[in-house]
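Quick one - inputs below.
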Amino acid sequence: MATIWVYLETNPKGLSKASLEALGEARRLAGDGRVTGVLIGSGVGALAEAAGHHGADEVLVADDAAHADFNLDVHVHLMRRALDGAGADLLLMPVSVHCRELSARLAAALDTGLAPDCVRSETVDGTVHWTRPIYAGKAFETVTPGGSPGIVTLRPNNFEALAPDTGRAASVTPLEATIDADRLRLEVREAVAAAADKVPLTEAAIIVSGGRGMKDPANFALIEKLAGTLGAAVGASRAVVDAGWRPHAEQVGQTGKTVSPVLYIACGISGAIQHLAGMSSSRTIVAVNKDPEAPIFKVADYGIVGDTLEVLPLLDEEFKKLLA
Amino acid sequence: MNFQLSEQHRLVRDMARDFAAGEIAPHAEEMDRTHAFPTEILEKAKGLGLLGIVVPEEYGGAGMDFLSYIIILEEIGRVCASTCVILSVHNTLFIGGLLKFGSEEQKRAWLPRAASGEILGAYLLTEPGAGSDAGSLKLRAKKVEGGWRLTGSKSFITNGGVASHGIVYGRTDPEAGTRGISAFLFDMDAEGVTRGAEEKKMGLNASSTVQVTFEDVFVPEENLLGEENRGFPVAMEILNAGRIGIAAQALGIAQAALDESVAYSGQREQFGTTINRFQSIQWFLSEMATEIEAARLLIYRAAVAYGEGRRVIKEAAMAKLFASAACMRAVDKAVQIHGGYGYTRDYKVERLFRDAKVTEIYEGTSEVQRIVIARALAAS
Amino acid sequence: MKIAVLVKQVADTAAKIELQPDGSAVKLDDVQKVLNPYDEFAVEAAIQLKEKDGGEVTVVNVGPDSADEAVKTALAMGCDRAVVLRDGEAQGLDPAGTAAVLAAMLAREEFDLVLCGKQAVDDDAHLVGPAVAERLDLPVATFATSLEVADGKAVVGRDADGIRETLAVPLPAVLTCQKGLNEPRYPSLPGIMQAARKPKDVVTLADLGMNPEPRVARQGMTLPPPRAEGKVLSGEIPDQVKELVQLLRNEARAV
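Output:
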């Protein structure tokens, strides 16, 4: 195919996982074509090498203390300069708050098509078709963004990063562009890493919930630990709330809260109808219970029949490995 | 004949539904349990114009039509029958009386404060010895210099424990039966007015219901509502609108019963399937749904006609008679569908069951409605 | 201050989504439609600014006739006037095309501030705000969860994937609103009555001299696969745990 560009994002650990996935997808689509990465930040120059290992042929780097914080005006300006005359066919970006505004503004500036939040690609008669969720994932549309470059943002965990090939070297080119003071209108007054505010149970994307099967209130420490690893909220069944093990605010069910998270992990919860009433519309339900006849297994997408107290620490460990 | 709600009515319905879901529903169960009056909810309702829904804009109200008001009552009734009746007595009976029978001076003096909710109104017709036979009421209104003095007692007064003002019916001519009754606006905090203890009701627990006694309570001339000794027709006319309002409350309760039952029967599994696959449950649900639709149409027709100033005595009675009966049948089926769970406070249908019964009793029992309809048929 | 709020009418998030028989579009006829929830934050923010500093709030909408209800809701909440475009040709546009039309509508007046929700809950594109800003050559700050306007600047607080940012843009500017910015008010009953009387200007594509084209072509639509039968895993517990985590990542994409 052609020339595919990838806008790369970094975090304190290096190139973001979603950026690596975008590079992998770019490499796969480009075939014998050219993959160019763009890296803008402060102290990021060294990451150009990693970009090469993960599929880039060339990396444009703007490495300057002034770029320590993301400034939309600066990034739009730099990207426009970089893309000007470069003949890019496609620009891939990871999905993030910054990339959402950057991709939308850039697409309007270049008058090209933007397909945001894509989860799959398929090449049909030489054209790449991108699939993206709409109506919060209740439906999917397949689209082809027009113009050169068409811009696509990729949802994390839906595309494959390449296994790093340390033999692969990318050429590095400095990306320079001074921006006129009157084009730099947005001011970043502050940007600090912050722990996210505690998400209310009713809005949490992931909930780890415990019931009588936890045997003892002290064992909820295992639930809290797993919740911490997953960035999840803690829920409870009515039985343990009535017993005074957990506060009413955590109760999920008929007389508690109704929740619909992306993932609901029910530990030691039998699954009586009062509880189901509160969580049955969760997107994915996991049940861990030592009773194979527990009603919760009827609604669970995945179940482990086993001792919750044994399973929980193992789950925590596995998730820690996955999310590292 | 257009059976679709207009855009305006849809906006009103959506607003009422959102308000009920956001501000009332989270507290309904607790209010029922603790018998707490919805003071904060009413404060928010005031700011949105819900205390003066049909009061014309020139008097500080929202100036909506009667159908909009009925739509709002149904949406609130669906979530909390108590809050619904509190608003209904204030809007339909107290404000309704002023709108239909108040003089221009009275309207200007009272309506703006009622519409803003500065005044919360009550309606005092019923007595310990005069329920369906309202015309036999005994509270005496004795003519004195500058007004009347009222002595007697009224019972089952909704809002009675908290209202600031009310409309009270008293006997100005002891010899003249129903032609000796007059209606008066009065201050619930006036000297001689005593509010009794809260009745221990089966349901509508967040609504205040008390006996009110009058001992030589003075009401000035300018508080006479309508003409002297012509109070009974005033009461009957106001009750017409009241019937439609209570019918809307019953409709709301029934709709809630249906919604709960559809959800529950789609989740509860017995004999290897969700119970909504069983014919007996399906028949319960379809009967509930059909009667609710029929009730809604009766109510809307009466509401539209009333709003257009047409005579609706028969239609209003039919709406209340049918809607309250349909409501009773719906809550009965709803508890049955929920089985043992429906018999516990954990499930909403238990409260719906207790709240429903009064709709067949107050503002004209179902027996009275039947008589009203029969008389209208005979007259035509 | 002259403020514009861009609003969209969308399917209620609780609605069941079905496709047309030919799979080309979502079936919307019987679906309950509402004012886009994220746009409600924008409407509320605009009205609060007007209540504090005076001015006028204009609600702007491109959509079918039924979108008048969403516009009326915004007027009932307290916006002063509406400018709408109802051309059939504009209905099939993608978000980028709609953004171009909105920008052209906005360009006819001098607004100090343009507010909208960060995304529409139907297309979930997060596109219109920044695209409108680019077309009007205005600065934009997105995902606002706090907002202060003073001395000709808008100061916005937002959470950008774990980084708490404070951004400042000079007016005129575009801002997109995120949940948590405010609690949108219910339309009051007097507000609903007044909404019917507020001025509504209808603009056409001919008035704008536009013939917009979509930039993204839709090739097809699908519904997600139906919920599969649950899997109870087997084997040694440590292996089951490993398998579960892999399934959650790769099959359920839940984590």
